[in-house]
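[job 0412] stage=fold_complex status=start
inputs:
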Amino acid sequence: MGLLKIAGGTVYDPANGIDGVIQDIWVQDGKIVAAPAGMDARPDRVLDAAGLVVMPGGVDMHAHIAGPKVNLARKMRPEDKRTGAVVRRTPITRSGTIGSVPSTFATGYLYAGMGYTTVFDAAIPPLAARHAHEELADTPIIDKGFFLLFGNNHYVLNQIAANEPERLRAFVAWLLHAAKGYAVKLVNPGGVEAWKGGADNIHSLDGTVENFGVTPRQIITSLAQTAADLGLPHPVHIHCNNLGLPGNWNTTLATMQALEGRRAHLTHIQFHSYGGQADDQGQFSSRVTELAECVNAHPNLTVDVGQVLFGETTSMTGDGPLGYYLHKVTGRKWANGDTEMEAGCGIVPITYHEKSFVHALQWAIGLEWYLLVNDPWQIAMSTDHPNGGSFLAYPQIVQLLMDRTYRQEVLKRVPPRVLERSVLQDLDREYSLYEIAIITRAAPARMLGLAHKGHLGVGADADIAVYTHSADKLAMFQLPRWVLKAGEVVVEQGEIRQETFGSTLRADTHYDESAIPNIRQWFEEFYTIQFNNYAVDDHYTPTGTTAVPCRPA
Amino acid sequence: MPIEFRLKRQPTVPLEAEVLTPDIVCRLTNAEIRSLTVYHGKRQLPLGEFFEIEGEKSDDLILHGALNKIRWVGRAMSKGSITIHGDVGMHLGSYMTGGRIDVHGNASDWIGGEMKKGFIHVHGNAGGQVGAAYRGSMAGMKDGIIIIDGSAGLEVGMRMRRGTIILGGPARDFTGLQMKGGTIILMAGAEIRTGAWMNRGTIISLKPLLLMPTFVFNGCQNPVFVNVYARHLQQFGIRLPFAKKEGAYHHYRGDVAVSHKGEILIWQPTSQT
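[job 0412] stage=fold_complex status=done
writing structure:
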């Protein structure tokens, strides 16, 4: 591969402290290289970026783009596909559908078309890892990976109940290895299992999961510790209990405190920041101020937002009881899937209305998070695609963050009660391009422990997005001038120029072989699949994997 | 002068002909109409390949021939008329928002699917899913009138929200499935599971129905609205009985598995009560 130069662009590379400096970026063999010495170094190709904005490729750390739940949503919502836009076949790309849950090929093209080059699916049941890898293999251009669901896994709950931290650690390491997963994900820890067992969902950290005798608090602390002991590149990734319920901010705060300084990432935090009473929608309010204070005071915590945007979308979650709750609230159709002893999920179509007090307040709460967390390195942009809205809405969020006049205009259209229950109106902060580059690329890459992503330093992957500077931030971020993936120009002015396939990112865990007989016995006794058939072999990652090293303490 | 279309070549697979609507042809010359694109399976062909076309620039279309394989005629039309002499294929008048369609022959499934307004009259029989919601959609027809002189198939009026469907002949199973509003009039009754899952809306049958156990008998009535409705329907040559001396309606509410707000009225002539 030849030498490529992106000449004279205004570079925003927060990981290396570069804030709008005009400089050249040199690329060779898929990596960023130092400027060649000597005056006679001649690049094979030059992209003239004079007057353009150069950033690392976007990193989406929390989306739902593969696996059984996503596919079930596609099947459940033919109307979403029928009325949605389509991606037409071209000589170099395949056809696809969009809607709230785009098809696999369309997902890759659309992310790359916006300048995103790395995306993680946030919730895969280990038993369905094979399916998730098959779909990711059909998701072009982007590098990808997924988090594995651990918070309701029977084996995990048993080890916690039996106080066997070493066995738990070995199991987590083995399972991440076997499923080629990236991180430990907790979804409503304990609550999904309780609900699957026929009992009510669990509403406090100290409720007990029947049949196991463990509490959400124990699950959270054990797995946070396990992830830390293993030195996983990404710490435990937590979807707290009580998602979406008024008054749930108490649970969220308790979760932050229960971690006692351990590193953790709290995801789609917007959905967990509500004040009020569970039975009284009238009391619904924002408690972001208190929670953001806690995040500001605890550098061990990071969050992504799960911004709500107005319009039609599909809620899909590993939180089965939440799916059922939403179905009861909205009256819309519902599907639920359980995965043996591992996990569950729920899917409901949902429409966020600008004129709805609750929806508008959810929208405001998301924006409060971006504006109240002081250090942008602690917060990542997400819509929890497609739960709060499609990833295609990211440019709209950029506009909302960079332009307070626009924000105030939208705020004028929402029900006036929202202004009383949220502090958004009083927040004057505007994001700079540098800060946008942090929350969309540099910070998520750092949270994920991806040393080779999210920056433009020498040795980094040459995943680069070049935007045309404009006062209209929506247009600017919707239509990048060029997008490079592994050094190849894959997108020009929003059009796919070549279809490449990225690598699958997985955590390079090492496990204790002596733990295997016990896990094997567990499989032989209870699983529908033989132990030897469980692990995902390399055929399922045809474009290769990148093993990201662990750093045990 | 209406535009006349005569089928000259029978398609071998269904022909997707959503261009056959007044909204598209009303301003086109004859040559332009002949060159409109239709989908024959995956192949794109000019409309003139399948039809002899006379006339141009009109809101009124007349179609002749065995059009069983011609689909989507009158899709999303908002004005004018389509008259069909012969049978016609699926999705006739789906999404229409106005105008009138007359079929002198039989029609297939999904007539008036998700229509918003307008009038469809089929003088022969129809298939299933008349005025229904397409799969996954929240609501079927939102307004308008569909009259079928003959019989109809499964799921007539499935998830309809408003409007009227009148069947001269019998309907098959699941008439008014998950209905949310509107009226279905069955002059010759229906097979089983009528009104299953209905939330609201009215089904009137002039023949006895085998009802599901989730419908609750609510007394004999001669509701005033039937009187009003009957007068309205006279203009279409439909006679809905309402006078007390002729009989009464047995009123059932349900489907209580989901709601108590739907109603089924079954006519009992005086001689039988």
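[job 0412] summary: The CA atoms of residues 22 and 39 of chain B lie 19 Å apart.
[job 0412] exit 0
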